[in-house]
UniProtKB/TrEMBL annotation, chain A:
Domain of life: Bacteria
GO term, biological process aspect, one: amino acid transport
Protein name per Swiss-Prot or TrEMBL: Branched-chain amino acid transport system permease protein LivM
One MF annotation (Gene Ontology) recorded for this entry: branched-chain amino acid transmembrane transporter activity
Transmembrane segments: 31-51, 63-86, 98-116, 143-162, 190-212, 224-250, 256-279, 310-328, 334-352, 387-406, 413-434, 458-485, 505-527, 547-575, 582-603
PANTHER family on file: ABC TRANSPORTER ATP-BINDING PROTEIN, BRANCHED-CHAIN AMINO ACID TRANSPORT SYSTEM PERMEASE PROTEIN LIVH
Cellular component terms (Gene Ontology): plasma membrane
Membrane-topology descriptor: Multi-pass membrane protein
CDD domains: TM_PBP1_LivH_like, TM_PBP1_LivM_like
InterPro entries assigned: ABC_transp_permease, BCAA_transport_permease, LivM-like
UniProt KW keywords: Amino-acid transport, Cell membrane, Membrane, Transmembrane, Transmembrane helix, Transport
TrEMBL record, chain B:
Organism, as annotated: Lutibaculum baratangense AMV1
Protein name stated in the entry: ABC transporter substrate-binding protein
PANTHER family: ABC TRANSPORTER SUBSTRATE-BINDING PROTEIN (PTHR30483:SF37), LEUCINE-SPECIFIC-BINDING PROTEIN (PTHR30483)
Keyword match Transport: yes
UniProt xrefs under CDD domains: PBP1_As_SBP-like (cd06330)
Xref: InterPro entries: BCAA_transport (IPR051010), Leu-bd (IPR028081), Leu_Ile_Val-bd (IPR000709), Peripla_BP_I (IPR028082)
Keywords on record: Amino-acid transport, Signal, Transport
GO biological process, one term: amino acid transport
Taxon lineage: Bacteria, Pseudomonadati, Pseudomonadota, Alphaproteobacteria, Hyphomicrobiales
Length: 632, 403
């Protein structure tokens, strides 16, 4: 019995840590609609800053002062980030801020290494709270008691701030209707800056409070960001009380779960999220998301198939690409093949995101399913590469059919997070099911058939599949099915009035995207010769997202350019410098500011050239505006 | 489009890089280029000292007449901790830079991906750090060799010490991935062979880097084991030590712990380092053999820093490559393999052999007890365990390794 009591209390202490970090994220999203990927980076900065300050400030007063000053300093950095970077891109499509904050996260990871060095740092324990008291005969650390108390205190403080101050009322009003608040003469800019600063303060405080518990390391950001995201989603986006409840639920399930299943922690939080979202599509206390896709409002011009000139241009580009093996060396062709694979993966995701209006955070699931499907076909069935390349899209398709059935019932960020949950569940299966998948030692020896093993042939193979994929998906976009999909995206209500079921159409799109991603995964496995669970992991999904956003989410296939630029940049920088994340992150930030609609999106806006011929912009603009206001 | 985009980008990137490290060495008439790949950006705490170690070795080799008169040049690449990126880097090194062999690796899966690449492309590969047994056994191949004592060897060393304890009821805490899983499995197997009456009463598998140490400590404590095997390291270890100590988890219990004596993991703990744990590690401060002292002196003179275990791995790794290249008098992969098999050489840890039977080096490890001295964690009462004594019989190895 006493074990259950202390386990309960340990769970609560852990919940408080999670909640502190998650409350800020929930607050920021609720008001500004920014998916702040950099939240984990600020959490980590809070911990590093507190570590430095506790070196100079001694004693109990000094310790707590250090924690608070650290959080305040980091909050100021957050405010600067908001004013310098995010303010410029509030008008950009939804999720573009995600790309910007992702770039910032990459930069912070390397900056932290430059400033604080690579070694793990262990700060002091909280003065006076080093020991433990006995609870039913079992020791409970006094610091845990402090954390357990701190959770509800912060929750109460935030509630009072939001409900009992004028500032809080304005913030809530802005959450409900930004334009109305602006019309009443409130300067939204400062409201948003204030909310962002407060959110970052809470994140940094959460990080600083970890000092007495664990080591400060440069892996802190990634280990927390996904977890707090899941917490805010389970709780219901924008609901701070919901985040509190979710943190408690997840932490307690973990504390008791490990008593029965000692390896459950790996997947528990994602299982939780999947179950909650399937039962309650908007989390515990979240409000239903209005159907209809925000980013659709940005597409002022409806998409057109390529003009004849554009087709000729594309054909010339493909012809040049096909001639590359005559002057590129082995390594260049290898990188070229990697780019082509990235192109297939990115356009499959773009089909889902841009045409379908479904932002998937877990597209790696289908990439990985294809890769594992192919690798297992080779390893267990002795299949040749040709057969494996046919099996891979099928495994991707089947996976998408299974998971898509649950996912398309949701929309918006909830949809995104359910796809992430399924991807993580798949990842943990690949990771844990050692006899079948080889665990994290992966599956080795997946090499191409003899005829395709030369770098040039394999490059041509990937090029051919990439051209086929882009062409096929473009044809699909401009087919009746594509129009139905866009109709559903822009106005669910009107589309259903003329007989299109949102779920059915989107389900089909999800399956198509899954099949193409699976094809990319298989080509990837044969290119590298081996496959590991990281093909299913979050970074793989994020890479896809970055490629689509970089190319331009409001374009049909801008991600082709996004994929090539991003892959080239990653490989080249990694080869040239150990600080590849700093440069790559900086580059992303610059591109975000320079091309607020993505590279292709912004360029086509500027030139309106043959590739992006402008036709009938007037009425279409009105149409999209109506769709936009309906979505709001 | 692909090429032009790439070029445009490359130009853009060049101006963007102010801090880019120029790794290209001046071309001289006679130089032997080798490729090195490691997780520099993902795991700098290990790979920075490691890089210093191999840099020292290269300097010494070239000062000593190089490879039969030729200069040894290392071209080093980052893999970002991802096996896929490691293969890309390997391709760049082999196809573009024309290196004669590959070396490096930290994570087991990166090491395995490189080993498989080596087999496919027929390139010689010496893995430095990856610990997985699969490297030389179940997934072993003709082109791959490994330097560090494997999981099996380290588990055997610790199991031998554990068998001397009175404890029979054991609990295990290990990170939930291949390294943790196989460390626990081998330790269990070896300990039960040596001491059939031991039983394992509890196990915990926290995810790497995400331990909830309070709950884990209590769950282990509730099973009332007499001894604990720990395989966690890094921030997980810090959290486990803190939460476990506060909760009295380690009181009156024997603890056997993998890697904890390595400066990489022991030093951050400072005065909070656990006392009396039986650990594998690297007590560089108290190893007083002349060959080791020479290494420490040279290292400190060059870098003004003390060596970590990573430094030593990097140093021996490159020294070994130097020996192989000298002996082979050729850069052909088949000749390198022939030279590497049963190569004998001296290291700061004493003489070692690169076994022909399974391509595993007999480098050993220090096993000792942790203590706190002058506010710092140290290893005391340690002995050097020769790796050769902790490998299975040749017949067993032949069963484990595909022939």
């Amino acid at each position: 019995m006493s074990l259950y009591v202390v386990q309960f209390l340990a769970g609560l202490a852990n919940a408080a840590s999670l909640f502190l970090a998650a409350s800020g994220l929930s607050l920021i999203f609720g008001v500004t609609r920014i998916v702040n990927f950099a939240h984990g980076a600020f959490y980590m900065l809070g911990a590093y800053m507190a570590f430095t300050l506790t070196r100079t400030l001694d004693g109990a007063v000094g310790f707590w002062a250090a924690i608070l000053i650290a959080a305040a300093v980091v909050a100021v950095m957050g405010a600067l980030l908001e004013m310098v970077l995010l303010r410029r891109i509030y008008q950009a499509p939804e999720l573009f801020q995600l790309l910007a904050t992702f770039g910032v996260t990459l930069m912070v990871e390397d900056i932290v290494l430059l400033v604080w060095g690579p070694e793990d740092l262990v700060g002091p324990r909280a003065p006076g709270l080093e020991g433990a008291i006995l609870v039913m005969g079992r020791p409970l650390p006094t610091y845990d008691i402090l954390l357990i108390a701190l959770g509800p205190i912060v929750l109460l403080g935030l509630w009072l701030l939001m409900h009992r101050t004028r500032w809080g009322v304005l913030v809530r009003a802005a959450t409900q209707d930004r334009d109305m608040v602006a019309a009443l003469g409130v300067n939204q800019k400062w409201l948003f800056t204030g909310v962002f600063t407060l959110g970052i303060f809470l994140a940094a405080l959460g990080g600083a409070l970890q000092i007495p518990r664990t080591a400060v390391s440069h892996h802190m950001d990634l280990s927390i960001i996904v977890e707090v995201f899941v917490i805010t989603v389970i709780g219901g986006l924008g609901s701070i009380t919901g985040a509190f409840l979710a943190a408690i639920l997840v932490s307690l399930l973990n504390a008791f779960g490990i008593l029965i299943f000692p390896s459950i922690s790996l997947v528990l939080i994602f299982l939780c999220m999947a179950v909650v979202l399937v039962i309650r599509p908007w989390g515990f206390l979240g409000k239903p998301v209005v159907a209809g896709h925000k980013s659709a409002g940005v597409t002022v011009r409806p998409w057109q198939p390529w003009s004849r000139e554009a087709r000729i241009g594309a054909a010339i580009v493909v012809a040049i690409a096909a001639l590359l093996p005559f002057w590129l060396g082995t390594y260049g062709l290898f990188v070229g093949a990697e780019m082509m694979i990235a192109v297939i993966f990115a356009v499959s995701l773009q089909f889902l995101m841009s045409t379908g209006g479904l932002d998937s955070f877990g597209h790696a699931a289908y990439f990985g399913l294809g890769a594992y499907g192919a690798a297992m076909a080779v390893k267990w069935l002795g299949a040749p590469m040709e057969a494996a390349l046919l099996i891979a899209p099928l495994t991707g398709l089947v996976g998408a059919l299974v998971f898509g059935w649950f996912c398309v019932r949701l929309s918006g960020v909830y949809f995104a997070m359910l796809t992430l949950a399924f991807a993580q569940i798949l990842w943990s299966i690949a990771f844990q099911w050692v006899p079948v998948t080889g665990g994290d030692n992966g599956i080795l020896g997946v090499w191409p058939s003899g005829w395709a093993s030369s770098p040039a042939t394999y490059y041509w193979l990937t090029l051919a599949v990439a051209v086929f994929s882009v062409a096929a998906l473009r044809m699909l976009v401009f087919s009746p099915f594509g129009y139905a999909l866009r109709g559903v995206r822009d106005s669910t209500l009107r589309a259903s009035a003329i007989g299109f079921s949102r779920q059915r159409v989107q389900y089909a799109a999800f399956a198509v995207a899954g099949a193409f991603a699976g094809l990319a995964g298989a080509l990837f496995a044969f290119l590298k010769g081996s496959i590991f669970p990281d093909a299913l992991s979050i970074p793989q999904s994020v890479d896809g997202l970055v490629m689509v956003l970089l190319g331009g989410i409001a374009t049909v296939s801008g991600s082709v350019v996004g994929a090539i630029v991003y892959t080239a940049a990653s490989i080249w920088l990694m080869s040239q410098t150990d600080l590849s994340r700093l440069v790559l992150g900086g580059l992303i930030v610059v591109l975000v500011v320079a091309f607020p609609k993505g590279i292709v999106g912004s360029i086509s806006d500027l030139v309106g050239g043959p590739l992006f011929r402008r036709r009938g912009a007037g009425p279409a603009g009105r149409e999209a505006a109506v769709a936009g206001s309906e979505g709001a | 489009m692909g090429l032009s985009m790439f070029k445009t980008f490359a130009r853009f990137g060049l101006t963007a890089i102010l801090l880019g490290s120029a790794l290209a060495a001046p071309v001289s008439a006679a130089e032997i280029k080798i490729g090195e790949i490691n997780s520099y950006s993902a795991l700098p705490a290990f790979t920075e000292p490691y890089r210093k170690g191999w840099q020292l070795a290269v300097e010494e080799i070239n000062a000593d007449g190089g490879i039969n008169g030729d200069e040894l040049v290392v071209i080093s690449k980052d893999d970002g901790g991802k096996p896929g990126d490691a293969v890309t880097a390997a391709n760049e090194l082999v196809a573009r830079e024309g290196v004669v062999l590959l070396t490096g690796g930290f994570f087991s899966n990166v090491g395995l991906a490189l080993a498989d690449y080596a087999k496919q492309r027929r390139v010689f590969f010496l893995a430095g750090e990856p610990l997985t047994d699969a490297m030389v056994w179940s997934q072993g191949n003709e082109y791959t060799f490994r330097l560090r004592p494997s999981n099996y060897m380290q588990a055997s060393m610790l199991a031998e010490e554990a068998a001397k304890l009175d404890a029979t009821k054991w609990a295990t805490i290990a990170p939930n991935y291949e390294y943790g899983q196989s460390a626990v499995a081998v330790f269990k197997e070896r300990l039960q062979e040596l001491k059939p009456d031991v039983e394992f009463v509890a196990e915990q598998w926290p995810p790497l880097g995400k331990i909830d140490a309070g709950s884990v400590s209590q769950a282990i404590d509730a099973a009332e084991p007499e001894a604990i095997l720990n395989v966690t390291f890094g921030p997980d270890l810090v959290q486990l030590v803190r939460e476990g100590t506060t909760r009295g988890l380690f009181q009156d219990r024997d603890v056997v712990s993998f890697l904890t004596g390595e400066p990489e993991y022991l030093d951050p703990l400072g005065a909070e380092a656990p006392e009396g744990w039986i650990v594998t590690g690297y007590p560089w401060y108290d190893i007083d053999t002349p060959e080791h002292q020479a290494f420490v002196d040279a290292y400190q003179a060059k870098f003004d820093d003390y060596p970590r275990l990573g430094s030593l791995v990097g140093y021996i790794e490159l020294k070994m490559i130097g020996e192989i290249l000298k002996k082979a008098e050729s850069t052909d992969a088949e000749d390198l393999i022939a030279a590497a098999k049963d190569l004998e050489m001296d290291t700061p840890f004493g003489p070692i052999t690169l076994r022909g039977i399974d391509h595993q080096a007999t480098l050993g490890a220090y096993v000792g007890t942790t203590a706190v001295r002058d506010g710092k964690g140290v290893m005391v009462d340690f002995t050097y365990k020769d790796g050769a004594d902790y490998l299975p019989s040749d017949e067993r190895v032949q069963e484990l390794r595909p022939q």
